[in-house]
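Whether sequence alone determines local backbone shape is best considered at the level of individual chains. For completeness, the protein is quoted in full, as a sequence line and a line of structure tokens:
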Amino acid sequence: MAETNGRTRAWPEFQKLWTALVEESRDPGTVIVVEGERDVQALRRLRVAGRIVALHHGRSLSGVAEELAAGSQRVIILTDWDTEGGHLARRLKEFLSPLPLALDLEVRRRLAHVLRGELVHVEGLAGWARRTAESLGDPLDSWLPEPEG
């Protein structure tokens, strides 16, 4: 029951944060960086339509940073909320900070706060959101922004 109460309190904040992220991701100069392909799929299921780059595609972090610098104005780092995800976020920040980009780690931090340890992997966001919405009688499709078309 405590988990449901925590989700009940977290849900409005998650909705607000996620709706803003979906809208921000539509800006052509914005890119979201995640760890792997399953993270990309989870964001797509939650209607993030903008550019998403997965770190684990056989490239070095410096190579990813060069790619981001070449085609982005704003980078939202959304790595997992575990030790490795934190390490990747810090390392990517080191590579990107000297570049003329707006760097956003705030979304990652705020999601961690909203999720309160219920989730540590970005790939689980879509399932968490669906389960939470259903438990509260608030289906995902009732509030997620319409897909771009």
